[in-house]
Design goal:
- The complex is a heterodimer.
- Chain A contains 3 helices and 3 strands, in the order ααβαββ.
- Chain A is mainly alpha-helical.
- In chain A, a hairpin with a 2-residue loop joins strand 2 and strand 3.
- Chain A starts with 10 loop residues before the first helix and ends in a 9-residue tail after the last strand.
- By secondary structure, chain B is of the alpha+beta class.
- In chain B, helix 2 packs antiparallel against helix 3.
- The longest helix of chain B has 20 residues.
- The termini of chain B are far apart.
- The chains are: A mainly alpha, B alpha+beta.
- At the A-B interface, helix 1, strand 1, helix 3 and strand 3 of A face strand 2, helix 1, strand 8 and strand 9 of B.
Chain lengths: 105, 504
């Protein structure tokens, strides 16, 4: 959440979000993205300035609810294709590096 | 510190291969703290819903398939795919909400962002600030109500297996990921911190399991990971209302582990407070072998899931008509089934066992048909824990109990007849006849006893004496003689009555 400082977004916040997304950014990139993301937030500030007191909050642009699918299996055999597209596969499973450490939670 | 489970909940941890097993062993374990302290426990239970397909895709929801065979472009998070809600999963979730006395409300789906290979699209679709079911309760067999904060819908994660030297997560090596489970519909049931000890925690989870199975929402199989439990644990001085720092304990893989983990963690907190220290709020993992909890992730990795509304999914807004339709179709819940038997005169314990074994319908019908409650429940508890017992004809069962209470069968004979009724399906009268368990006519019994008394005058004299010790010993002697003479067909109670009558 951006602080209500003069800058819409701090460099530290960008660094934090990047680390949560497991992105490794150079110092130069941090500067670039802080500026670019700041511009996006600045634009959002313009919209915040509008009086929307009469507008009902909504989670979605369409006035739709309850779009459901029937509980029916669709047979799609993507096993081979999916594994073939993976960088590494083994024993019918996707092989991934352990670099992420402990699982979340 | 807010003790209730905040909106910042955890992603579903990857499954463990260990099975959830219900205790069979009656190990005596500590279940309480010193009287100065009490436990404050909140439980988060994840249950996989019994649908045919996944939460947001038409891929198959099935346990035990070969790795990565129940996968679909949507649950693989492939570019261009879009989730569509499984209506059946919503219905089952509403069913559970109603069974837990929740308010069912308009809700939305949110994205919970985190990086881990068990979620290929790098977010889990869950519910955050507008869950489907809120503010309910669950009543335990002991009458204590545990508040339900929420029961929300989400999707399960894939399953990663760590391959390394010792199989431990921190070792070098690599992981293999199976996405069969990714996207399986889950309901997460979050309780208020109303649970006061390991036994109550186990009772709560067992009751929740019984409800999930009864309403057909989940198969509730701990051993297949259909149900998983995390416990939020803190302690406080007994009698106070404060809520102290809690720790969330994960990786508990059986009801027994749940009890042990709670006990260990609560004692750890007490020790810290009593030595002038205090616990840190953190996630800990239960180490089954070591019998202890260990700290989980380091502080720098503190959870920050950056939840936001999922733009791919529109709100779920169940109409009052739909909710009432689902409510009307709910089966009788375990609690009401227990209450029914208790109202007929069964004890709480016996009623609980009967419902657990799905024999409460049989018991109730046998009682209705005139079977003595005590005898019916005794059979349910001790002689009917076998396959096929539920198919027993209630009328025949009631007849058996009547034969028993009417003195036509002894307790031992009744047990044998009952066993044969289950395997053979014959009526108790036929079986008793075949086995020669004909009731002894009371005059026959008396004549037999008279003969024995006549043959043993010294023993009879001692039985009639005022020495209680001698009397007791001789009572055993005469009963034994009668049984011998009648090949065990005499009713012990009837013999005792006759003996008392003749000696007075």
């Amino acid at each position: 959440m951006p602080e209500s400082s003069t800058e819409p977004l701090s460099r530290d916040e960008v660094a934090k979000v990047a680390s949560l997304a497991l992105l490794e950014l150079t110092e130069q990139e941090l500067d670039t993205f802080t500026e670019q993301l700041g511009a996006v937030l600045a634009h959002a500030k313009d919209i915040e300035a509008l009086d929307v007191g009469d507008v009902k909050p909504t989670s979605h642009p369409y006035p739709l609810v309850n779009i459901f699918r029937d509980d029916v299996v669709e047979e799609v055999d993507v096993h081979d294709a999916a594994l073939a597209a993976a960088p590494h596969a083994e024993a019918g499973q996707f092989r991934v590096p352990p670099a992420l450490g402990e699982e979340p939670g | 510190m807010n003790e209730t489970n905040e909106l910042v909940e955890q992603p579903v941890s990857s499954p463990t291969l260990d099975a959830w097993t219900v205790d069979t062993e009656v190990a005596r374990e500590e279940t309480d703290l010193s009287s100065d302290w009490e436990m404050v426990i909140g439980l988060e239970v994840h249950a996989e819903l019994a649908t045919k397909t996944k939460m947001f895709s038409p891929g198959r929801n099935q346990f035990g398939s070969d790795p990565n065979t129940n996968i679909h472009p949507v649950c693989l998070g492939l570019p261009g795919t879009l989730p569509v809600v499984n209506g059946k999963a919503v219905e089952l979730s509403i069913r559970l909400g109603l069974a837990l006395n929740c308010t069912v409300q308009r809700c939305i789906f949110s994205r919970k962002n985190y990086f881990y290979p068990d979620m290929p699209k790098d977010y889990q679709i869950s519910q955050y600030d507008r869950p489907l079911n809120i503010s309910g309760w669950l009543e335990l067999a002991n009458g204590h109500r545990i508040g339900i904060e929420r029961a929300h819908m989400e999707e399960d994660t894939g399953k990663s297996t760590h391959v390394g030297d010792s199989g431990r997560i921190h070792d070098a090596g690599y992981s293999l990921v199976d996405y069969n489970r990714a996207g399986v519909p889950l309901i997460e049931i979050v309780s208020h911190p109303d649970v006061r000890g390991p036994e109550e925690a186990k009772a709560y989870v067992a009751e929740l399991q019984a409800i999930l199975i009864a309403i057909g929402a989940s198969d509730g199989k701990f051993e297949e990971g259909s149900m998983r439990v995390d416990a939020n644990i803190s302690v406080r001085p007994a009698g106070s209302n404060e809520l102290r720092t809690r720790c969330e304990v994960k990786n508990v893989n059986s009801l027994r582990s749940l009890g042990r983990a709670i006990m260990y963690e609560a004692k750890r907190h007490v020790d810290l407070y009593e030595s002038g220290d205090k616990p840190l709020q953190e996630t800990r993992h239960w180490d089954e072998e070591g019998g202890r909890t260990r700290p989980g992730r380091s502080k720098e990795q503190a959870e920050d899931y950056r939840y936001f509304d999922d733009p791919d999914l529109v709100p779920v807004d169940p109409s009052p008509e739909w909710i009432e339709e689902i409510r009307a179709a709910l089966p009788t819940l375990p609690r009401e089934r227990r209450m029914g038997l208790i109202a007929s005169g069964a004890t709480v314990e016996a009623a609980t066992i009967a419902v657990e074994r799905e024999l409460d319908g049989l018991a109730a019908a046998a009682i209705d048909a005139g079977g003595d409650v005590g005898r019916v429940m005794t059979h349910v508890e001790h002689n009917l824990a076998v396959d096929g017992a539920a198919d027993l004809d209630a009328g025949n069962f009631a007849d058996l109990v009547k034969m028993e209470t009417g003195g036509e069968l002894t307790a031992t004979q009744a047990k044998q007849v009952l066993a044969e009724m289950i395997t053979g399906g014959k009526t108790p009268a036929d079986i008793a006849k075949e086995r020669g368990f004909e009731a002894m006519d009371s005059s026959d019994l008396e004549a037999t006893l008279d003969g024995i008394i006549e043959a043993n005058p010294d023993e009879w004299e001692r039985f009639c004496s005022d020495d209680p010790k001698a009397k007791g010993k001789m009572q055993g002697f005469f009963t034994g003689q009668v049984m011998k003479a009648t090949k065990g067909q005499a009713d012990g109670k009837a013999v005792a009555q006759l003996l008392a009558k003749k000696s007075s």
